[in-house]
Each structure stands twice: as C-alpha cells, then as structure tokens.
Amino acid sequence: MGDRGGLGDRERPAQLPQDRPNWSERSQNRNENWNQRVDKRHESMQQRNENRQQRRDDFAKNREDRWDNLEEARNDRQDWRDQNREDWQEHREDMWDYRFDRADEIWDNAGDFYDDVFDDHWWGGCGWGHVGHYPANPWWWWAPVTWAAATTFVYATAPPQPIYIDYGTNVIQEGETVYVDNKPVPAKQYNEPVVNLAVNVEQPAPPAPPTSADKPAEWMPLGVFALAQEEKGEPVMFFQVSISKDGKVSGGYQSVITGDQKPIAGQIDKETQNVAWRIGDNIETVFATTLANLTQDVSTLAIHFGKDRVQNWLLVRMPEPPPADKPAKAPELDRTVPPANPIPVNATTK
C-alpha cells in the first residue's frame, strides 16, 4: 500500500496516478484498457471534486449541530418507539440525510487513491488470493450488485422481500435487550445466531472470476466498502465482500494504516438474510449486516466485540472505476432511503 496517510490528508486537485509513489509497481504488465480506465477514473473524480466544493463546506460547517440534534432525538428512546409516528419518520429521514452526506464526504476524500486495493494485482500479491492477472476487468471485485441479481444468484426459489436493517433505528441494542421494530428480544437470543454465522465457518476459497465465459460463476462480488464511524472521521478499513451460491461469504480486508491484508470468512442465513463475517481467524470481532444492505451505496453495520459489546458503524460502497469505452463521469451517490420493511419475528428468534 505504501505510505498514504489518512484520506483526509489529500490535497485537491489530487495527485495524478502516475505521480504517486506506488505507480511503477501498480502499472506493471497493464494493457491499454487498464490505462484508459485509470485516466477516466481520475478525470471523473476531479469532476466530482469541482462540483461539490460548496456542499463539502456546508457539511463541515453544520456537522456538529446536525449530529447533536440526531443524538438528542435518538437517545430519547420513548419518543421513537412507534415507527408509524410522523416524528419518527422525520428523524429517520434526517438520520439518512446525514449518512448520505458522510458517504459523499468519504468519496470526496478517497478519490481514486485506493483503486489498487482489491484489483487483480492486489489479489495476486496478497499471498492467499486469486493468482494471475484478469485483464478483461481488473476491478471485477469492485462491481456493485442489485437486489434482484444477488437474490437470483443465492436463492433457488422466488427471492424474498429485502430486509434493510437500520442499526440504531429499527434494530437498537440496549443492554440485555435488542429492540427489533420496537419489539424487545433478549440480546443473547438475537446476537448469538448472527455471530455464529462468522464463527462457525471454515475459511472459504478466495473469490475469483469465472475462468471462461461458458462456465457458471462460483462467486458474485458485492463490491468494495469503506468502514467508517457515523459521525465523523476517515475510514481506515476496507472490505471486499463476495458471496457464493451456497451462502458462503469470502473476500478481503485491507487496513490503510498498517497495510494489513487478510481474508474474510462468513455466511448468509438465507431465511433471515443476516450476513456476518470475521477477519482471518479472529472470532472475537464479527461484522454483521444483511444481504439487502450490501446492495446499497450506504448502509449500517453492527460490529460485535466479543459477546457483550456492539457498535453501529457506517458501510460505504466505493464507486467502481468507469469502463474504458464510456466517457468519464463524476460518480453520484444513490441517496434513496431504504424502505423500513418489517423484520420478521423469525429473523430475530430463529
């Protein structure tokens, strides 16, 4: 990864890719398709930076007041128990508006500085991943996926209604109780099956592209995600998450502070749609979300530290570099608030 510093340390306009310290290694054995995508990616992110200066300034100026108001409302749990109330709906919309602005901030600061994470060279050099180049699409692992595509890949029968867990809003951890759509469930009863998805699974094979066009894909990439705190701060952890037809989760983890690279391992519970994974052999820290959440540009994620501590974090999809045959275009975040579909009782008491 080289010496990159924090995302927020970047100056705009960003340094050209070929002027960066890792360029000689990153650009080895690349074809013209790759060079065109790198150039268009840089151009598209520059367009984005030029168009968003005022919104960046406004968010930075108002961040503290907005977050204080959200926390005041969220901490007064009695006022938000009825999800049909208009004030609860307004609070949820305000929360998502803030999350979308945070995600935009992360995109702005990251730019194209991390495009070599989870490309084909990254997988070939990590020591346990896909070996070899994939010139047809070096960023195959970055591709986003729709709910329809993900469920068609995973479910043999008709796909279920998507479950978007909004940690801190429709799933709330309070001591020994988890409130799911305002229904109290014992924390152990809710958390243990989710954590076990990551604990009780062997390390799957690394996700690899199909070896030929006539062979069915064994893995579907869900994209590359930055993990960040909801309020502020730059992400220091990135994940590539992929799923197999039998519900296994594989992919990779990269720390931009230490340069640490490890595989991830987990599972999907096809009945509840819960998804959880661990990093390497560390079963004490588990990352939990839902399959539907992983089809979104922005979603919430719960981190389980052992059996007794849970924190809510923000998961932000990083935009895929544009195709070589398409014009450079500034990426735009999908700011659609996910529907608050009911979470089935069996999704919490299975």
UniProtKB/TrEMBL annotation:
PROSITE patterns on file: HMG_BOX_2 (PS50118)
Spans through the membrane: none
All residue ranges annotated as the HMG box domain in the record: 24-99
Stretch list, region Disordered: 1-64, 319-350
Polar residues composition-biased segments: 24-36
Composition bias, Basic and acidic residues: 1-13, 37-64, 326-335
Name this protein carries in UniProt: HMG box domain-containing protein
